[in-house]
Every structure is written in C-alpha cells, then in structure tokens.
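Q&A log
Question type: sequence-to-structure
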Amino acid sequence: MSEAGKSGNTQEPEEVEETVEAEAETEAPAPDAQAAAIALAERVNELENELSEARDERLRALAEAENARRRAQKDREEANRYGASGLARDVVSVADNLARALAAMPTDTESEAVKNLASGVEMVEKELAQALSKHGVKAVGEIGDHFDPNTCQAVFEMESADIPAGHIAQVMQKGYMLHDRLIRPAMVGVAKSISEASEPTEKEDDAQNESND
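Response status: OK
Response body:
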C-alpha cells in the first residue's frame, strides 16, 4: 500500500479524541432531560399516592354510609316494635283495675244485675287481654312459675307445701312484657319449703313450757 493510502485512513490523535467526546455527548442524556425524568417520576408517585388516598376515603365514606343506613333501619324497627311501650304501660293498669273489679264482686249473689255486671266486666277483661296479646304484650309472673328476677320482684317469702321453693306462690300485681322488653315487673311472693322455716329457739321453748305449766 502506498504512503498516500496510509495517510488517507489515518486520523490524528486530536481528531480521534474529539470524535469520542462527540459520541459520548450524543449517548449521554442532557442534564435537563435527567431532571425532567426525575420530576416526572416524582409526580407519578404523588398521583399514585393521591389516588390511593382517594380510594381509601371513598371506601371509608361507603362504610360510614352503610353503618348509618343500618343504624337508621334498626332505629325504625325498634320504634315500630317498642314505640307503644308507654301506651301499653298505661293500658295494663286498666287491666289491673278490671281484675280487681272482678275479684271484688260477690260470687254468691242472686242478683241478676250483679251477675250481668260481672259477666260484662269479665268479657271486657278478656277482650283487652286479647288485644294486648295481639300487639305483643304478654303477662309474666303467674302462680307456680319459677321466680325470675329479670321479670319479677319478690316482695316477701312464704312457706308453702304445694308450691316448690323458689317458685311464685302469690301474685300481688302481674308483670308485663312488650315483645322481649319488660315494661313492668310482677310483684310476687316467693315460696320456701317448710323445712327452711326458722326452728323455735331455746328461749321460745322455755317460754312455751312455762305457759303450759
């Protein structure tokens, strides 16, 4: 190969260095492009965080709305179920008075007027009891029932050979419930076995013996 050919393909060191620097500048991104890419990535992260927060707030709002709807539904159901408790409490007092009126009427009378009156009062009492039962009002605390402190109030204890201990032996005033809610406790006397009665003390025995002498 001639000297001319060799000189045509050969670059000076300065020219080679300038070529490499130009290629490096072409391959490497400019500082402004790097900053823009970083800012874009940060903005994307911010938008993702805002989207996640918005999604969480939406879910919380939906949950609160559902809870409010359930509370309102429960309040409506309780209002429909127990809204008449005050009226029921007043009406059962009327039932008590009818029962007292029947108890006070003589059973051995020959007067047709008294018999008719008693029959009418008894009919009214039964119709009232049916109306109360229709609307969820039921009596509690019957003689012979087991004493339940949740529905009955014990006024006294009494010995009984017929009623088991811990059961209701006497009812002074009936109790009533509206569905599953107590509107008035029953006032009752609770039976206790005769064996639970207090035995005479020694002094009482001595006093009894002296009186016999």
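Response note: Residues 13-82 form one domain.
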